[in-house]
Amino acid sequence: MPSTTVRLDAPLDMHLHLRDGEMLHNIAKESAHTFSGAIIMPNLVPPVSSKEEVVAYKERIMEAIGEARFTPYMTLFFKPDYDREFLESVRDEITAIKLYPAGITTNSEGGVSGFDVEELRPALEAMSDLNIPLCVHGETNGFVMDREAEFVSIYEKLAEAFPRLKIIMEHITTKASVEALERFENLYATITLHHLIITLDDVAGGMLQPHLFCKPIAKRPEDREALLNVALAAHPKVMFGSDSAPHPRHAKEACGCAAGVFTAPIALQMLTELFETHNALDNLQAFLSGNAQKIYGITPLTKEVLLEKRPFTIPAEYNGVVPMYAGEEIAYSLKGVRHG
Ligand SMILES: NC(=O)N[C@@H](CC(=O)O)C(=O)O
Ligand SMILES: [Zn+2]
Ligand SMILES: [Zn+2]
Question: Which residues does Zn(2+) 1 bind (predicted)?
């Protein structure tokens, strides 16, 4: 029987952590090889929050990826005091701005501590006028399983107050967020690979699995079901964002485990397997690229990725970073990458 080959055009990762320094050099190629482009998160230490910093960070990324054809779609770390003049001056360097509630996830200490609409109005009105999307890590500081659902009312408040602002609910993990998508025209969402596969049971139901620990924490089976429904249908308001978030092994296998799951090198293989299992391969292209192109209005670099149905054993680590499902066998392997 001939093996099944799946072709993907210009895959996009709409939520990616490339880090900086040695880590950037160690892991950037894993994304740049197979993805056409990615939205690059700004939560460095210190966060990327000036024009000089975003330009310099992009240069370091281009250097780290070497010959690969890959677009880093840059973002700034949202500060409520960004004024119109500043936003106009930085408009051409960025694709979006990322808002973090203060202290809610890795390197978010300098984030927003209140969601008063009038305080945020000058920056968010200017972003609406300049057509700069707002990406949001949507969690309150409530009980860990309820943080995202509690944040939905903040999403609604923002969506209503700034109807021309594109708001991307990043890495959604709950049924409540999926339902919010339907209520506001200007709400969109990214969904990770791991939240389509795991629930809290996989993280903490047996022996604790640090490499599956991330923010937002994986939720209940009915939440995963709701995410799967919209992802497998390639609902036009959802797009793939891996939230691949590498940490060195010692920071994960530690007392006080850093949040983040590293999936960049295996995301396309595992998504193909997942969509095939659910008879939804016809929708994978839209989930992985088409929807994001429309939502963000971007035209990615051409890149054709071929995957074939041949077992692949996930390496134990990539340059000191342990991937999701290290050592396990998955159904699809990377066959080749062609540039246009
Ligand atoms: N997702 C995570 O658990 N961690 C991310 C930050 C984030 O996306 O919230 C990281 O930067 O490590
Ligand atoms: Zn986040
Ligand atoms: Zn992230």
Answer: 15, 17, 98, 243
Q: pLDDT averaged over the chain? A: 97
Alpha-carbon distance of 133 to 130, in angstroms, equals 9
CA of 170, closest atom in ligand 1: 8
- Ligand 1 pocket, residue 211 CB under 6 Å: no
The domain tally of the chain equals 1
Query: In angstroms, rounded to a whole number, what is the distance separating the alpha carbons of residues 40 and 61?
Result: 10
245 CB near ligand 1 (under 6 Å): yes
CATH number of the structural domain spanning residue 121: 3.20.20.140
Binding residues for substrate: 17-19, 43, 137, 247, 259
CA distance 283 to 300: 18
ipTM of the modeled complex: 0.99
Would you call 243 a catalytic residue per the annotation? yes
Segment 70-83, tens digit of pLDDT: 999 999 999 999 99
Angle made by CA atoms 315, 321, 193, in degrees to the nearest 5: 75
Residue bearing the CA closest to ligand 1, atom 6 = 106
pLDDT in tens, 119-151: 999 999 999 999 999 999 999 999 999 999 999
Give this prediction's pTM.
0.98
Domain hosting residue 331, numbered range: 5-339
AA letter at 122: P
